[in-house]
Write a structure and sequence with these properties.
Helices cover 54% and strands 9% of the residues. By secondary structure, the chain is of the alpha+beta class. The chain has three domains: 110 residues, Orthogonal Bundle (434 Repressor (Amino-terminal Domain)); 68 residues; 126 residues, Beta-Lactamase (2-Layer Sandwich). A six-stranded mixed beta sheet has the order 2-1-5-4-3-6, sandwiched between helices. Strand 1 and strand 2 form a beta hairpin. It is extended and about 110 Å long.
């Protein structure tokens, strides 16, 4: 039922909530009870002065009676229904439900938002537990130490006398291994219980870089103004490991080159007129599309009409740069979904691949993915070039041309799409 035909239902619900009889509301509004009855059963449209008068009597905004619940609330309820298709929720009556029971509708919306947040946390933690090198190294050290303790204890427990010198040596080894096991265990527990910032400090260098860029919003103001890379590195690189600092220096160097080639002021007007299409912006600004993608990812929110995400990978397929969007997550470790246009671009270098994609997230958000693979370095004799692929992700408007979106995921380990020809490992959601 269209939203504008439910005004009468909302008037009836508000009247009942305030304890007013139909005849009393009709008398105060200056209309007959029979006419109000037709309005409340959505058989007569209402608007203008009469709607304002009834809204004033019911102590509610007229727009709430005319339009009902917020569009975002109704959209959230639709998404909740689509997430549970077997429940058989009446999608054609979702607006009526939101209008008649706004409180319960909000409770359901809030619960769904909390579930979505918890799912994102599970995905992140699962990705960490599966691919985190620090965790794997700690567990390997613990198992090795336990094995060493067990071997020494087995020798001491064997029948017969052990030479006192060897006995003392075995006791010393057990003591040292036990201390190392306790230290490793404490470090692992601290790592697992730490918040995201502390965990990042103990993580791999790439994760340290990701954390720094995320905190900075992937935007470095001093480099936009022609500042020195060393100054930006000193500000952003405090506390990083040496390897992570080297990764940051390389990223800042490329950022500075991009900012000099395509200044932020040169992007403002083209963004307003041409939107986020990297090919159109590339032609207008005379700069390569991959650089345009990186510049878009580095823009502050007030410059962009919509947020964008960016993924960069080398020929191995591992992400060397990631700027995810809330509804387009990207794995923290290892490679991503093999169906991403990012990887297809490696098979078709110098060709811009542009297509709508959709991840199995909590809503029906569709994204336009633009992917391009370009060679690293110059031309070399008798040497095949190494390619680097960029993929820019931008949200599609609710109303687009209707082109079917390619179904993709974040990574196989946390993807709920069981029937996928690109799957390389079982999903933890298989149950």
């Amino acid at each position: 039922m269209p939203r504008d035909t439910l005004t009468g239902s909302r008037i009836r619900e508000r009247r009942i909530m305030r304890g007013l009889k139909q005849s009393e509301l009709a008398r105060q509004a200056g209309i007959s009870a029979s006419y109000l009855n037709l309005i409340e059963h959505n058989r007569r449209r209402i608007g203008g002065k009469l709607l304002n008068d009834i809204a004033a009597i019911l102590d509610v905004e007229a727009v709430m009676l005319a339009e009902g619940a917020e569009a975002t609330l109704i959209a959230t309820l639709r998404e909740a229904a689509l997430d549970a298709p077997r429940a058989g929720a009446e999608l054609d009556r979702v607006e009526e439900f939101a209008g008649r029971f706004p409180g319960w509708a909000q409770v359901l919306s809030d619960a769904r938002a909390r579930v979505a947040g918890l799912e994102r946390s599970v995905e992140t933690l699962t990705d960490r537990m599966t691919h985190d090198p620090h965790l794997a190294a700690s567990l390997h050290e613990m198992l090795s130490t336990v094995t060493a303790i067990h071997s020494a204890a087995s020798i001491l427990a064997e029948p017969g006398d052990v030479d006192p010198e060897w006995q003392a040596r075995f006791h010393r080894n057990i003591h040292e291994d036990s201390e190392r096991l306790a230290e490793t265990s404490r470090g692992l527990v601290t790592y697992l219980e730490a918040d995201s910032e502390a965990a990042t400090e103990l993580g791999v260098p790439q994760e340290e870089l990701d954390s720094v860029l995320e905190a900075a919003g992937h935007h470095v103001p001093e480099l936009e103004e022609g500042g020195a890379v060393e100054d930006a590195a000193a500000r952003l690189g405090a506390g990083l490991s040496n390897t992570a600092r080297q990764l940051l220096d390389a990223w800042l160097q490329r950022y500075a080159e991009d900012a000099r080639a395509v200044p932020i002021e040169a992007l403002r007007l083209p963004l307003e007129e041409d939107g986020l299409d990297p090919m159109r912006l590339s032609a207008r600004l005379g700069s390569e599309p991959a650089r345009i993608m990186r510049r878009l990812a580095a823009m502050p929110p007030e410059v962009l009409p919509d947020p964008v995400g960016l993924a960069i990978c080398d020929a191995s397929g591992v992400l060397s740069y990631r700027k995810p969007l809330p509804d387009f997550p990207m794995p923290r470790f290892g490679a991503a979904c093999p169906l991403w246009p990012l990887y297809r671009a490696l098979n078709r270098p110098w060709a811009m691949l542009s297509m709508p994609v959709q991840q199995p997230v909590r809503n029906e958000t569709r994204f336009q993915a633009d992917a391009l693979a370009t060679p690293l370095g110059g031309i070399a004799v008798n040497t095949d070039p190494l390619f680097e692929a960029h993929m820019l992700v931008r949200p599609l408007p609710a109303r687009d041309d209707g082109t079917p979106a390619t179904a993709v995921g974040a990574a196989c380990r946390i993807c709920p799409r069981m029937e996928c020809h690109g799957r390389r490992e079982p999903s933890v959601l298989a149950g």
